[in-house]
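Field: sequence (string)
Field: structure_tokens (string)

Example rows 1 and 2, in order.
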Amino acid sequence: MLEKLLLVDIGNTCIKLVFASPEALEASYSLPTRAQHTPDSLGLALLQLLALRGLAPESITDCAVCSVVPDVNSLFRDACRKYLGMTPLSFPEDFSFNLVNGYEHPQEVGADRLLAAYAARRLFPEPRSIISVDFGTATTFDCITGGTYLGGLICPGLLSSRNALAANTAKLPRISLDVTDQSAIIGRSTATSMNHGFLFGFAAMTEGLCERLKAQLEGPVFVVGTGGIAADLSGICRAFDAVRPDLIPEGLRLVWNESRASLS
């Protein structure tokens, strides 16, 4: 039977479910993290997605999860046991992989940050150092030199900052964050002022912090952008050498392969 993987990224905003083979990612779907999930609601969602792909539950040969939300992770594990008949593997606990965790307290590193660093290093092995920039609920900058994860920075997230501003101000609208211009303009409406303020403000933050981090890293330094807004920002942000929106699920696929190879 051909191997079929279910790769799951449980973040603070979305649960990303990706069907894959050992060789490549195939299809991606998202569920809201903060919905009132139960093992049954997650399991039934899995069955619907499998049906959409024309797959039977028993066709999934393995499941790998990267989670930063422990309570949802527990619910998802129960869903997999009940509806797929398997216990998913969790990153990093259940995997063997070649990346040294150089954090002062290694257990404090978010699984998503460590996995993004691992994936960036595996996908781009040549540069001496790498900065992985992930635009999620928070914006994280993670640094790798050689085979060692060094640490990084945690900054406000673009979308969560927009939502917080709209929720806590009486007259400011919720903006779409559409990238329609290549340079910042002086806004002559509130929507334009906010849209350009957020987009070009975060682009400038990314450029500035990457330059400051590069000064502390052994060169050459390669910068990888990931997360939902990274592809949009790449057109106005000069910091990126590559953009890989799929860095977390790709990391799960790579670490699954590496861990399996180490056992053979």
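Row 2 begins here:
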Amino acid sequence: MLRGRGATLGGLVLLVMAMPPSASADGGTGASGCASMRVCVEVDIPPKPGGGTGPGPSGHGNGKSDLVIEGASCDIRRLEPQPPAGSSLWEGHEPGDGAIYINTCAGSPGTANVDTVGVAFWSKDVPTPAVDPAVLARRAVDSMLLEGPAVASPRAEGRYTVGVPLWLWVNQSPTTWGPNTASASAGGITVTATAKVSSVVWDMGDGVSVTCSGPGSPYTPARGMTPSPDCGHLYSATSAGQSGSTYKGSATSTWTVDWVVTGGGQTGQLTEVRQSPFTVSVGEVQVVGQ
């Protein structure tokens, strides 16, 4: 069953079209109505045209209003149809002098029994749209300065042999492997993103690629000529005929980035790709007759 309630906050009208079952019908939730909601997010109130910060009939002051709902996706849109002349929403203005906008949060079906929550307000100018959390997530990722794999093997100065297993592995750090965490904020919303490499594709330069889900295992002399248990390659021809007598390869990492809105319940995932080049010199075992 839907219930409606209105409240005025500094000249701002809170339109609560539905409330969670825990909210009281008499509005015992505080001035902002947030106490009865599962999550509150801040929404910027448009500045008062002509200067000034206090609320009044000529526009809203600079401030914030708490709005409402878990998993909400908020935006600012023109209210259609516009209220008739004389409506309190016009705050003393006439239709055509600016417009009435509403900042709405549309909850997911079945979430907390909340269907629509919003703030209706008059503004002379078109308000700035609400911040997209995915945009903040991208900003957080940019601040991480993620890099391509830190290739430890093969080494540029190394000499490798046809038919002998080559172990592939990378060094790990927050910028080359993860986990790497960063946050970005705007419009009262904070998004925290965490990035970690999920796979590395090794292009070995001889037409073969190797996909590894981990960083690979470092080789030790005790391993002898055994193949790598998780990430390796075996060259079948020398690099003598290649440019510079080396195979030109690359290691490409795929970063999986999970992000979440702080206190808001919204989540998402991004994918980033980074690449590092490497060279491999491969020769043959020389057999000398006696």
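free_text_note (row 2): Residues 1-73, 105-117 have pLDDT under 50 and may be disordered.
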